[in-house]
């Protein structure tokens, strides 16, 4: 699939007062800053991550879809009792999605989610039956469930919430009432994850995907969800797929009419008929003045001409644009100066553009750019990841044995102490010493894999014991059937 276009955010941008209210609700639930996008951001995979991460920690891996990252927020209006669904962009903009209903239970569709936030990506997906390109939302994490943040939980438990308590009731609703759901703006799928010693299966199945995938995402099992850059969340791409977002500045040459006298103001002018230079600018951070103003205000402020600001940007390189590409760009009638473009570096060092990223207000920060270039220079290949699988599996199984051993030792210690208290004349009604909260959390995060995969049913909005909330992965033994 060669189409690398990204969906526009569906729905309608919320009014400022509504958006502020929603931001406040999200900040209260997640305990984050109001004007801060609460989503997690990965770091580029480098060679050091092979041994410092994959061999030392438990990870789950999924393919990296080439789409538009957004959070999905479901909230019930306390005054009208009306359910609202919203998409949150990386620019922390809120868009209302009409008509959606996300039931809390597979058996009772009347109860809706309220205060639930899931993480995912919008992609263009080609329906294998109808061959129609449609928008889908791929869920891969969960931040909150029913007004309660779950970011402190490990990945297994967060995925359980997203899979069993959010996606399954939605899927059952679509299955039973397809006609009522057919006009919804997009469909939802749950992105399957598997252990990193089965990466070869992910690569094998990528060719069967109905959307573009350009790499892998590796998420640590035992760490919480981090708002902002998460150093344990890894993004792997083959070197040829590593891209950087730059801001484009068009520089047209000046034409000098030597037939006119030097003092004539019309003697020199910008020649818009020839191909300009496409300069790539890298972002140094910070907001430029008037960054959020409307097009109308910009034109008024600049005396009738729209001008892009390149403040907080430095010139980085130049984009290679062929004459044929320039002709296509001109025929489109669009404006290109000041837009964010996703680019990649060819083997000869030149830069080519893949697409415009109008969903982004700024390009990649200079620090991110340097890390991506390091990832390209220090590239880990697909074959190297596959070759490491036996070591990853051996380390994974060794950690599981150590966890089971520690669990058994803890059980024996508590059992021995409880018997010792009775034997030495202590009050038999007195309970054994409690396990420290920190130790309990660590113990919960270190459950054996077979316990993690235990299936637990959910009835309505009933509370499920924390120790039993675990995601079920099919491990890519079979690809899930295409969901309607």
Automatic annotation (TrEMBL):
<dbReference type="GO" id="GO:0006370">
    <property type="term" value="P:7-methylguanosine mRNA capping"/>
</dbReference>
<dbReference type="InterPro" id="IPR051029">
    <property type="entry name" value="mRNA_Capping_Enz/RNA_Phosphat"/>
</dbReference>
<dbReference type="GO" id="GO:0031533">
    <property type="term" value="C:mRNA capping enzyme complex"/>
</dbReference>
<feature type="region of interest" description="Disordered">
    <location>
        <begin position="417"/>
        <end position="484"/>
    </location>
</feature>
<keyword id="KW-0547">Nucleotide-binding</keyword>
<keyword id="KW-0506">mRNA capping</keyword>
<dbReference type="GO" id="GO:0005524">
    <property type="term" value="F:ATP binding"/>
</dbReference>
<feature type="compositionally biased region" description="Acidic residues">
    <location>
        <begin position="464"/>
        <end position="477"/>
    </location>
</feature>
<feature type="active site" description="N6-GMP-lysine intermediate">
    <location>
        <position position="64"/>
    </location>
</feature>
<comment type="subunit">
    <text>Heterodimer. The mRNA-capping enzyme is composed of two separate chains alpha and beta, respectively a mRNA guanylyltransferase and an mRNA 5'-triphosphate monophosphatase.</text>
</comment>
<dbReference type="Pfam" id="PF03919">
    <property type="entry name" value="mRNA_cap_C"/>
</dbReference>
<protein>
    <recommendedName>
        <fullName>mRNA-capping enzyme subunit alpha</fullName>
        <ecNumber>2.7.7.50</ecNumber>
    </recommendedName>
</protein>
<dbReference type="InterPro" id="IPR012340">
    <property type="entry name" value="NA-bd_OB-fold"/>
</dbReference>
<dbReference type="InterPro" id="IPR017075">
    <property type="entry name" value="mRNA_cap_enzyme_alpha"/>
</dbReference>
<keyword id="KW-0808">Transferase</keyword>
<comment type="similarity">
    <text>Belongs to the eukaryotic GTase family.</text>
</comment>
<keyword id="KW-0539">Nucleus</keyword>
<keyword id="KW-0548">Nucleotidyltransferase</keyword>
<dbReference type="InterPro" id="IPR001339">
    <property type="entry name" value="mRNA_cap_enzyme_adenylation"/>
</dbReference>
<feature type="compositionally biased region" description="Basic and acidic residues">
    <location>
        <begin position="438"/>
        <end position="463"/>
    </location>
</feature>
<keyword id="KW-0342">GTP-binding</keyword>
<dbReference type="InterPro" id="IPR013846">
    <property type="entry name" value="mRNA_cap_enzyme_C"/>
</dbReference>
<dbReference type="GO" id="GO:0045944">
    <property type="term" value="P:positive regulation of transcription by RNA polymerase II"/>
</dbReference>
<feature type="domain" description="mRNA capping enzyme adenylation">
    <location>
        <begin position="41"/>
        <end position="237"/>
    </location>
</feature>
<dbReference type="GO" id="GO:0005525">
    <property type="term" value="F:GTP binding"/>
</dbReference>
<dbReference type="GO" id="GO:0004484">
    <property type="term" value="F:mRNA guanylyltransferase activity"/>
</dbReference>
<dbReference type="GO" id="GO:0008033">
    <property type="term" value="P:tRNA processing"/>
</dbReference>
<keyword id="KW-0507">mRNA processing</keyword>
<feature type="compositionally biased region" description="Basic residues">
    <location>
        <begin position="417"/>
        <end position="427"/>
    </location>
</feature>
<feature type="domain" description="mRNA capping enzyme C-terminal">
    <location>
        <begin position="241"/>
        <end position="386"/>
    </location>
</feature>
<dbReference type="Pfam" id="PF01331">
    <property type="entry name" value="mRNA_cap_enzyme"/>
</dbReference>
């Amino acid at each position: 699939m060669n189409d690398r276009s990204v969906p526009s955010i569906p729905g309608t941008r919320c009014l400022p007062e509504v958006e502020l209210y929603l931001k406040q609700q999200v900040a209260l639930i997640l305990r984050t800053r109001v004007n801060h996008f609460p989503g997690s951001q990965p770091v580029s995979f480098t060679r050091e991550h092979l041994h410092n991460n994959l061999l030392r920690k438990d990870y789950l891996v999924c393919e990296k879809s080439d789409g538009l990252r957004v959070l999905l927020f479901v909230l019930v209006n306390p005054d009208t009792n009306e359910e609202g669904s919203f998409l949150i962009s990386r620019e922390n903009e809120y868009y209302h999605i009409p008509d959606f209903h996300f039931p809390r239970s597979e058996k009772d569709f009347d109860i809706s989610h309220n205060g639930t936030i899931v993480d995912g990506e919008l992609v263009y997906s080609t329906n294998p039956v109808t061959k129609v390109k449609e928008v889908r939302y791929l869920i891969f994490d969960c931040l909150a469930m029913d007004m309660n943040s779950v970011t402190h939980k490990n990945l297994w438990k967060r995925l359980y919430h997203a899979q069993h308590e959010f996606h399954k009731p939605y899927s059952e609703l679509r299955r039973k009432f397809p006609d009522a759901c057919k006009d919804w703006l997009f469909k939802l799928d749950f992105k399957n994850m598997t252990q990193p010693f089965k990466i070869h299966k992910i690569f094998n199945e990528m060719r069967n995907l109905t959307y573009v995938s350009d790499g892998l995402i590796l998420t640590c099992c035992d760490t919480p969800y981090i708002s902002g850059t998460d150093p344990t969340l890894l993004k792997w791409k083959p070197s040829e797929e590593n891209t950087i977002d730059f801001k484009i500045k068009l520089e047209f040459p000046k034409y000098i009419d030597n037939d006119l006298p030097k003092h004539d103001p019309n003697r020199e002018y910008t020649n818009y008929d020839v191909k300009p230079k496409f300069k790539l600018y890298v972002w140094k951070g910070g907001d430029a003045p008037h960054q959020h103003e409307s097009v109308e205000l910009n034109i008024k402020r600049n005396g009738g001409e729209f001008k892009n600001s390149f403040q907080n940007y430095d010139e980085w390189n130049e984009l290679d644009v062929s004459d044929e590409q320039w002709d296509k760009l001109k025929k489109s009638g669009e404006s290109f100066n000041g837009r964010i473009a996703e680019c990649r570096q060819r083997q000869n060092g030149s830069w080519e553009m893949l697409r415009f990223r109008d969903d982004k207000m700024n390009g990649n920060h200079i620090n991110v750019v340097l890390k991506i270039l390091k990832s390209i220079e220090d590239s880990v290949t697909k074959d190297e990841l596959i070759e490491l699988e036996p070591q990853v599996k051996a380390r994974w199984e060794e950690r599981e044995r150590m966890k089971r051993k520690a669990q058994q030792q803890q059980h024996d210690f508590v059992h021995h102490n409880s018997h010792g208290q009775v034997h030495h004349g202590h009050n038999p009604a007195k309970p054994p010493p409690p396990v420290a909260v920190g130790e309990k959390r660590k113990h919960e995060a270190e459950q054996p894999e077979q316990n993690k995969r235990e299936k637990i049913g959910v009835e309505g909005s009933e509370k499920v014991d924390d120790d039993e909330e675990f995601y079920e992965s099919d491990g890519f033994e079979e690809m899930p059937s295409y969901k309607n």
